[in-house]
Design goal:
Elements lengths: L12 H8 L20 H20 L3 H6 L4 E6 L8 E5 L2 E7 L1 H9 L5 E6 L1 H9 L6 E5 L3 H6 E3 L4 E3 L1 E6 L20 E4 L14 E4 L5 H6 L5 E5 H10 L1 H7 L4 E5 L6 E8 L5 H18 L1 H8 L5
Helix pairs in contact: 4-10, 8-9
Length: about 300
């Protein structure tokens, strides 16, 4: 190995930085004879002290090996409205905490055992925007595939599917709703969540009365603010299991539901921004990771844990 030489002209930053990345025992300071005829001895000693302090600082900087032992966290986001059992805030004494849990969270942490995983629940539109650039989040969890999103994101293989139901008040509509096709939905006043896209049901977003929290949807229907809202069956049951207040609302005998006609099960994916230099590698890692979870039986264990096998 070529020794790292510190020459008389030790004020050269380039020379010092080159020494930074060599093993300590390969650093061989070689000081050429100094001429001090025009400088005082005390001034030279001061300059040498500065050099020693600088080199000591370099030795304290983290090495590439140290950086590898502290990998950069992987940041992902999903909707703050929660999608139990896939992503939701853990409860303590019936109250939400800041800890995000769920099937997809656990799966993500198992796939990336070699690095920390941080999952935030924020407004969905904000999640998409901050993931699109790749500067804040590298993955958005649980997204439907649309032509618009495919422009900016790469999609994993489908991870799970959900069934769409519409929910209404028996008191207001004792004979049920006259809905046989998607077009029939437009005869009614519909509530939904702000930032969501209802185009898969043939509903322009501008025609949907939106609210920010899922917890407000049921009261809007039962109190005659709208005729119905649409939600996935698995999400409704997930909310029922984690939220005592919502359980009471969901179990209200006045609340009825029926499958949305003409809609197949909706596939959901993890999405990765195309702006990331390693986007393809990250998608491959996710796909291979989920395949491995299936082969090892860990996927079934997680599905059983979150009651997804029924």
């Amino acid at each position: 190995m070529v020794p790292c030489v510190i020459h008389q002209k030790w004020h050269s930053i380039i020379a010092l930085v080159e020494c930074r990345f060599l093993p300590f025992d390969s650093v061989q300071p070689t000081l050429a004879p100094m001429k001090i005829s025009h400088r005082s001895a005390s001034h030279e000693i001061h300059r040498m002290s500065v050099l020693i302090i600088y080199l000591s600082g370099l030795l304290l900087l983290p090495t590439p090996a140290a950086a590898e032992s502290n990998p950069t966290p992987l940041y992902a986001c999903d909707d703050v409205s929660e999608y139990p059992p896939y992503t939701y805030f853990d409860r303590k004494n019936g109250k939400p905490t800041d800890n995000v849990v769920g099937y997809t969270v656990d799966a993500l942490k198992k796939i990336f055992k070699d690095r920390p995983v941080v999952v935030d629940l924020i407004p969905w539109n904000r999640c998409l925007q901050l993931t699109k650039t790749g500067t804040k989040y590298q993955i958005a969890l649980g997204a439907r595939k649309t032509a618009e999103r495919e422009v900016d994101f790469m999609f994993t293989a489908p991870l799970f599917q959900m069934q769409s139901d519409y929910y209404y008040s028996r008191k207001k509509h004792p004979d049920g709703l006259d809905i046989h096709t998607l077009a029939d939905l437009q005869k009614y006043k519909i509530c939904g969540l702000f930032g969501y896209n209802y185009d898969q049901y043939g509903l322009p977003t501008s025609t949907v009365l939106t609210t920010y929290k899922f917890q407000q949807l049921i009261p809007l229907v039962l109190h005659d603010n709208c005729d119905l809202f649409i939600e996935y069956r698995q999400v409704i049951q997930g909310h029922r299991k984690i939220d005592d207040e919502l359980r009471k609302a969901i179990d209200d005998p006045d609340l009825a539901h029926q499958p949305v006609p003409g809609v197949t099960d909706t596939a959901y994916y993890f999405i990765v921004p195309r702006s990331l230099p390693d986007a393809k590698a990250l998608v491959d890692k996710l796909n291979n990771g989920f395949d491995d979870l299936g082969k090892s039986g860990e996927k079934s264990t997680l599905m059983k844990k979150y009651n997804l096998l029924n």
